[in-house]
Each structure stands twice: as structure tokens, then as C-alpha cells.
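Morning!

This is the sequence you dropped in the shared folder:
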Amino acid sequence: MKLFIKYFTMIFLSISAVLIISLFIIINIVGNDYLTEKKNILINNINMLNNLYTKKDFNYENKHLKTISNSLGIRITVIEKNGKVIYDSTFSSTADLEKVENHLGRKEIDNALKYGIGDDSRVSSTVKVRHLYVAKLIDSDYILRVSLPYKTLETYLSDIKYHIILIFLLIIITIFLISYYFSKKLSIPIENINEMISKLERNEQIYIDEYNNHDDKISQLMYNLFKMMISRQNIINEERSKMHSILSALSDGVIMIDQKWHIIYMNDKIKEIFGDKIDNSLENLKDFELIKFFSEIKSKGDGKHFIKYGGRFYEITSKSYENHRILVFHDSTDQMRYHAFKSEIVANISHELKTPVSILMGYAETLNNEDIDEETKKKFIKKIFESSVRIDNLINDIIELHSLESRDRNFTVPKPVSSEDILQELQEIYKDCSKNLIFQIDNTGLNVYKEHILSILKNLIDNAVTYSTGDNVVIGLKKSEKNIVISVDDEGPAIPEEEKNKIFERFYTGSKSRNKKRSGTGLGLAIVKHTCELYNGYVELQKNAKGGNCFKVVLTER
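The structure's back. C-alpha cells below.
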């Protein structure tokens, strides 16, 4: 019953709220349309009077004006441009107009004088009745104004509101009945579902055929789902049997244990590795080497671990789940021997990787010490991350440099790149830069590959941001005939003369002379140099006016 009330309230209130808002909108629209229509009628009346009479015809001797006023239900007023009223159909003689105040300053009169026509809605100070006024400047000589008592408008609007509200009440009744019907239609099957779930939680027997007799679609759906669940259970049992066959055929050993290290499942390969030394629990082992072996696995937790047992090396993959843990044993003895051979070869080409790897290993080993405080751990983790980034940057730079060296020099750029696109991308990349980057980039098309010019700019900017102690870096990009000229200026310190010929060599960094806290991979400027050579260009280093460095790049468009 509570569910029914909830659905009924939700449906009824939602639709009713929409209808109430719609009601006010409709009434407002109808009222505005009606007022607009009345204004147009008054304008037509003005035009009619202007066509029938001239200024001198608007006097009290002309009885037709009074007849028109009465028959149309309007008030006719003629006003001089100075605001003096010379005729008003409300009065009977010119003498009566003497008590009428000057009409200058009234909204419709002022607008008519300014724009040729004006309107307003207010209580008349003359007849003390609310009117809708429309005034028009005639021949730039006088103002002809007609008005309509607002009571007529209010009567019409009241009638409209009455009918709309009546219709609204009928709709509300209809909504009430519809809400009742759909709420009942929705709540009954959901209550059946709740009942079924409750029985499942209490392990009570469910007579599923009872739900098949209901007319509602949801109950029938639950019946079909339950039947499908039974069918799926049978399929799962079959799949479990297949999985056992597959795991038994694997060359790797597989053990599933519970939280108390009791064995739930193990395949035949485990029996080949350990023989009869393990039974139903890994907590009751009697062999010393086996106890040491599994104790080490237990201490290491999840992940992949290499542990020696019986003269062979095993790669143990451990993965914990909510109620169990899976251990996979892979004999990696041959693979370990291969890696030992491979490491000897790699050692000969890993000179540039040695420092960051040593940092990673050193801090990682230190982190295993449980006595380290949290602040020191965070510091070490940061150092590890920075070294990892350095390795990644080094590898990427090596790949990029190799790509540049092996590329065919005879190529043509099929489509020019917009310098505006280059600027936007650089601004996005360096939006959080610690230095003030000043871009002086001409808006033009460049016949170079976008990735090449971006690589040059990013390496030069990164170099300036990394090593410069100043606050500003100026980036210039302009086109001179068939050449593209790039410049990156920093504020120092200037690179010593003896280093200027070395900085474009591979793996050369100026960290000792320029910035002891940060250094790059030593490949950035080498990449810039090789990219310039691709475009038959060059890169040179000059000292700028601020005592800093100016890297100038000249490329020939392809």
C-alpha cells in the first residue's frame, strides 16, 4: 500500500505541477494577445477618424463624433502638441475642457510626440476610470488619442480565466483517475518482486508458477527470469566441469584457497610440482622447504613474485578476492636464465638509464623499511615518480630521434598548418606553466608538419622553462618568404661559450652549469637539430639583450 501511495503521489503531483504552470502561462499569453488585439483595434479607430475628419472637424458641433464614441465604446481625445486638450468625447462643450489639465508628460502623449505613436494603461485623472490609451501624432500638427475602459478588458479576461480554470479542474480529475490506474498497475508487480526477493533472502521455497498467473507484464517477466536463472545454473555447472578439465590440462599449477589457507581447489600440475607434500590445507605442512616457500608467498601478498623451490624458479601470480585467493605457479627457470643473459646485453646500452633506475631502486628499497615516517615516504614516492617520468621522457626522445634520423629527406607537406592552431595548442599545453610565456606569433599558414614544428617549440620552451632563472620566456614565430623563423628567448643565465657547441649533442645536459635542481634527458636540443636538418634549416644559439639565451631556428618550407 505504501508503494501505491508513493507512486500515486509522484505521478499525480508531477503532472499537476506541469498543468498549473501551463495554466498560468496560457492565461498570461491569452491576456497579452487580447491586449495587443485591442491596441490594434484602437489604432484602426484612430486611422478611421483621421480619414473621416480633419483637425477643425473635432468640435462639439460635430455630433457624429459623439455617435461614433458611443457606438464603439471608446473615448476620443484631440490634443495640441503643447499638451492642451481641444476635444474630449467625455465632455459636452468646450467650456468643460477648461478644467482638464495639460496632457504633456503622459506616457502615450510623450511617445506619440517622439515616435509617432504611443500607448499606456492607467486610471484616467479626468474621469477616474482605468483606460487603455493609444495616441498617434497626426500630420505633425496634433495628437489624436482614443481609449477603451479597462473594465471591458477585465470582464473578457475574467471570462477566459473562468473557462480555463473549469477545463483545468476537469483535467485534474482525469489525471487523478489516470494516476490511480497506473500507480496500481506499477505497485502490484513491484510488491510481488519484493515478496519474491524477501523469500529468497529467508531461503523460503518460491512457487514460481503463482507469479505466472498474474496479468501484469512485470510478474510474467519475473517468472521468465526465474526460469532462465535455473537454466543458467545448469549451464554454470556444466561450465564448471569444463573449467576443471581446462585447468587440469594447463602446464601451470593452480591453487584456490580460502581466507584460512585451506585448499578449495588444485589442479593436477600442483600435484606434479609438490607431490604428496600438501593435502587439504597449507597451514598444516610438514616439509621445511615447503613451509618456507608458502610463508614467503603469504608475506608478499598479491602480485607476481619469483621464488625458488626445489632448485627451480617459479613465477607465482597471487590474486585475492572477497572470500578466496588464487595462486598460479609458472616454472620460469628457463626464462630466468634467458633474462640473465639478456641483462648482460642491456647493461652495455643502458648508461643513460642508470641514474633514474638507481634512484627508483634506492627509494623503493628504503620504502620497505617500516620505521620510515609518512612525510619521508611521500618524499621518496615523489622522487620515484620523477625518476619514472625521466625514464619515460628519455625513451620517447630516443624513439623520436630515431624516427627523425631514419626519415626520408625527400618529402612534401600536403597541407599547410595554421600558426593560430599552433598557438592555441601551446597555450593549452603550458596553461599551468610556472613562467610567463609571451607569444609573438604571426597568423599565417606554414608548409611544415604540425608535429615537427610543435616538437621544436616544445623542446625549446621546455629548455627555457627548466633552466632559466628569469620570469619571462618570449616565443617568436614568423614567416620570411620561404623560410620559417622561430625564436625562444629566456632571461638567463647565459650558456657559457665553451658549451655552445656541445648542447646540441645527444645526452648532453647543462644542469650543472644552469640549474642544479632539474635536468632533462639530454635529447631535446638534439631533436631540434635533426628536425631542422629535415627542412634544410639550422638552429643557433645567441646571447640576447637581457643577458639570456636566444635559440633561433630557421626552416625551409617543404
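Headline: The longest strand covers residues 130-138.

More detail when I'm at my desk.
O.
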